[in-house]
Amino acid sequence: MALQRLMSFFILYSILGYIPSLGVILRTTDKTVWANEFEPIELTCLIESISTNNPRIEWKKIQNGVPSYVYFQNQISGDLEHRAQLIQPANLLILNTSRADTAEYRCEVAAIDDHKHFDEILISLAVRVKPVVPRCSVPVAVTVGTSSELRCLENEGFPASQYRWFHNNEELPQDPKSSPKFINSTYSINADTGGLKFRRMRKEDAGEYYCQAKNVAGHAQCPTQLMDVYDVDIVGIFLKVLAALAGLIVVMVGVCHVYKHHCFSSGKDHTGTNYKLPSQDDGVDYAEADEGHFRHKSSFII
């Protein structure tokens, strides 16, 4: 009885061990692969079992659900041409990765002589991109007690950058309450958007500022910019308001003076005693006309 069970075990083991050899089976070391831009990366497509001597091997790139050939009919094609090669038996080596290589890649192996003649494996590749120099906006001068915001942004890094701010070459802690030096500060930092907001500016907040954008591929920072924080000049504001009021009064007096002078001049022209009738010096006497005829003056010449 024991011998019969042992023989059954060996038969079952032989069958189970033999079946995989009749079909192609693939595996990979990493289904999700990260690579730094401009560096090489190898996508592994390992053939664990196969009986066919010359299987057909293909690689396809899938972006936005649309597949395109990468390795077809024993040659590299598509946008990886001259930038990739096949490493025997089926690994794909990308020599110089770019951000455009971020996609899913599918390794397909067809073995016509095997019982299971086809297998495929899907690998996701994400290319990390170092941040570029961020664009920073720092106000030149602000007033004590007012609110203000400093901005920092870059759009090239992948994954998306995280932002840090530096004041006089010292990194500002994310929470000012965590540092005795900044415990009285009223700022808040948004590491995702790069915003540095002050609820109430203090004289101590004046100084040099710069921002750093960072991800797993590297970091970059903008040039240092100076921000001044000044007190409110009450006396200066009062003098400016006073000068503006004085100017307004002068203008109003001048307008009233011109207006009154114009009115008086107009009255004399129409109602004064200086009004004269136009002179009549045409040599004809229109005042006397007796007995139905007129007389010539002595100056009239026939």
UniProtKB/TrEMBL annotation:
Keywords: Cell junction, Cell membrane, Disulfide bond, Immunoglobulin domain, Membrane, Signal, Tight junction, Transmembrane, Transmembrane helix
Subcellular location: Cell junction, Tight junction; Cell membrane
InterPro entries named among the record's database cross-references: Ig-like_dom (IPR007110), Ig-like_dom_sf (IPR036179), Ig-like_fold (IPR013783), Ig_sub (IPR003599), Ig_sub2 (IPR003598), JAM-C (IPR042974)
Keyword match Metal-binding: no
One GO biological process term: cell migration
Pfam family, one: Ig_3
Transmembrane regions: 6-26, 234-255
GO-annotated molecular function: cell-cell adhesion mediator activity; integrin binding; protein heterodimerization activity; protein homodimerization activity
GO cellular component entries: bicellular tight junction; cell-cell contact zone; plasma membrane; protein complex involved in cell adhesion
Gene3D superfamilies (UniProt xref): Immunoglobulins
Annotated Ig-like domain residues: 20-124, 131-215
Similarity comment: family membership: Belongs to the immunoglobulin superfamily.
UniProt-listed PANTHER family: JUNCTIONAL ADHESION MOLECULE 3A (PTHR44598:SF1), JUNCTIONAL ADHESION MOLECULE C (PTHR44598)
Protein's name according to its UniProt entry: Junctional adhesion molecule 3
